[in-house]
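User: Okay, second chain of the day. Same drill as before: sequence in, structure tokens out.
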Amino acid sequence: MDKQTGINIGGISFKWDLEKGEFLFEQQDAVLFWVSSAMKSFFDTIEEVSGVEASNLVFETTGFRQGIVVGEYFQHMKNVSVQDAVKLITNTYSSAGWGLAKVEHLNIEEKTFTTKFKNGWEYKINKAQEKSEGGNFMPAHYAGIFSGLLNENIWYEVVKDQLQGEEFTEVNYFPSTITVSNNIRQLARKTEMDEILHLEAVVEDKVRDLTELVKELSSPIIPVLDGIVVVPLIGKYDEDRSEALLERTLTNLPSYKPNYLLLDLTGLNENLSQHTASLIEKIGSAALLIGVKTILVGISPQLSITIIQSDVRLSRFDCFQTLQHGIYYALGQMGRKIL
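Assistant: Same drill. Structure tokens below.
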């Protein structure tokens, strides 16, 4: 084979220059790829890196914008009608291995038409990928071509798909406000919203875990001596936290076999709420039902005033200013003392 050679098929020229490593298709630099292997690998890689949804938009946008370039090129050719341009384009693409394409029902005034594609390179790639639905590069590409030819934004709708057993892929084209730029922005917003929803779900999970951890740590049951356990009350108690404390205390208390339960109020806000005061009374009353006496410790002068002013009667419980005094008292009631 000569180092420089060329052929002409159906009026389309192909030339090679082996010394320069060039392939010219209609006097323009071109490149050849194996469709079902090299190009398939190319498509697979894009989808793997970007994800299927983003990849579909990449192919669609690329096809449309490439079509715009082709359409504007033919639109500026002198003495070439739209019908002539369509024939030149479909013949050229067929010669380049893009498969068969027939443009039917072309209405220049309404700027509508139908295109039938068969055995195109995108179809072959999708088939090699074992997909059940055809890609959108080729449909979008012809939308771009006619957008350039007709000076109107043209969009498409696939009505038949060769990958789904049809003889060909049939696509309807029409003027539309849909643009690839809008599609890009919509995908970006959708991606951002998906990420926001994901982060919100993660935050909710973390908050739930932290809430459970706080419940476990905020008021633990502490066995200090045989027969004596301490439950410190810390911070503010809303309805959920109160119920959790009451349930956990009464559920776990029997396992320690205590005689006395010391509720340490040192960590409570001095502005004792009616709800918290009621919680203290409920714990003491419930503990008494299972044979455990309740002692209140850690009561400051300010807290004692608040307790007296509340509607809840806590006077029936023994009260002490410090935890140490409460422990000594409980030991004394059990006939024991610390030596």
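The first helix runs from residue 35 to 50.

User: Thanks, on to the next one.
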